[in-house]
Amino acid sequence: MPRSTVDVSHALATVLNGTRVVSTAINLPGPVTAHRLAALGAEVIKVEPPTGDPLASMAPIWYDELRQGQQVVRLDLKSDEGRASLHEFLADARVLITSIRPSALDRVGLGDLDERHPHLLHVEIVGDTTEPDDAGHDLTYEALAGLVEPPQLPQVPLADLLGAEQAITATLGGLLGGLTGPLRVGLGDAVRGVNASVRSGLTGPGSLLGGATWRYDLYATADGWVALAALEPHFIPRTLTMLGLDVEPADRSPVEDAFAARTTQEWMRAAKELDVPLAPVQQPSSR
Prior knowledge:
By secondary structure, the chain is of the alpha/beta class.
């Protein structure tokens, strides 16, 4: 009897039903975290400053995606009225997400949140847990982790996104364990945890996954680019057959010449037929 495929998003959509989450976190890691928790069924109240979340002007499409299904309110947390409104929201909440330096939280008069709301699980997203008051952003944390190749800037904000994943895990783990109080997550910690591929020599210029073998690389076609990832031994003969080569090449030249002779779609049809791990290189959306 064939097994049915489970739609994970649908299956988990009610996991956090009845759980109220208040997030004062703006920019990227906090909104990504809140978005995922809302997708799991949580009731999310997104608190923004009077001027709104900066992400709305930097990436309006992504901002709109991340706030779907949430109640968005604007409060001036530097004012007595704004703080009073926040405390009202927190009275019935189970989770609070913040992404502000501890010293800044103190300066706006919210340094006593954990004492005032002992029922809350407070997920604090900071730059780095070792020095949470130091200034920084995704680029600085990626640079410190050795994930930046100058002069190119990162194409994906890994520290922000991995930090969000850790915040999601901390939230779910904290709720599962019945925890209250602060749980601190650091963006710098998150990328230090994934730079093992660079430290171990698996990735990076000249490494196995960084250009050392013709079997794992990018190639220009007649009308674009393709990504070849034929690492395992059983893919080698199939790839050589697809390329029209009798033996493994001593350098890239025969492979480059072969790919350049046909269009991307022609190569994709051939790869599908021979079961070769090949993909077209898509251009980032210009929307």
